[in-house]
Amino acid sequence: MAAQIISGTEISKQIREELTKEIEDLKQQHNITPGLATILVGDDPGSKVYVGQKEKACNKLGIYSERTDLPADTTEADLLALVAKFNEDSKINGILVQLPLPKHIDDTRVIDAIAPDKDVDCFHPVNVGKLVIGTGRFLPCTPHGIMELLKRSGIVTDGKHAVVVGRSNIVGKPIANLMLQRSPGGNATVTLCHTGTKDLSAYTKQADILIVAVGHPKAITADMVKEGVVVIDVGVNRIGKTEEGRPILAGDVDFDSVKEKASAITPVPGGVGPMTITMLMKNTVESAKMAAGL
To answer: Is residue 73 annotated as part of the catalytic site, yes or no?
Structure first.
């Protein structure tokens, strides 16, 4: 049986259509326009692309967008002052500081300076704590996107064994926490694997749902999974260029071989990637509703 291809492109489109209607309703019924401030420090090409995509998504959905590009030699004090300004700006419901920052700026100090109710990336310790105990109103964008992919694809998680490979603060730890919570889309038995795990395949072969976020191309191969597994591949790795100079991308999972054993699998590109910015938009709308007491 051919694996179900879980299309983040299609599911992201569905969610954006829902958001467009919700934003229009907020404007017409409550005179509320959600607002997102993005801050880019330096001229990293990848970061410029990401910020541009976020700005484009805002404009398309009807979210107010305010972008600030700062030079690479911006001081930490100046960046913190800008964050403080946006914290007090009623037009802004979400603040996103694009990471990584230049080495002379402390990422943690900047993240901690963002007001928790405007931390739409959900990196602030207050929001991370709420996630862990299950009271967060909005969730980290990529893990939230994974949960939506599973839910909207009809994947049952209740009672399943979910194996997460990778323990980053951005993906691995939060998705492990979300999968184990007693809530829709969760209630799984969760195993979290990492660089210290001995005999990784002994764990991945047990997975009913396998979520991989390690940053190494094709790290998970067909001999490491069981028949019928659901595979969520978070990795995006550049492994070469086409003759036209376009990047060739590969996930952390060897898609071609693993899809022959999986019951469902996300592709790269077009899987988890499109969901991240969409969930950022969703969090910004949720923050606007919170600010209005809705």
So the answer is: no
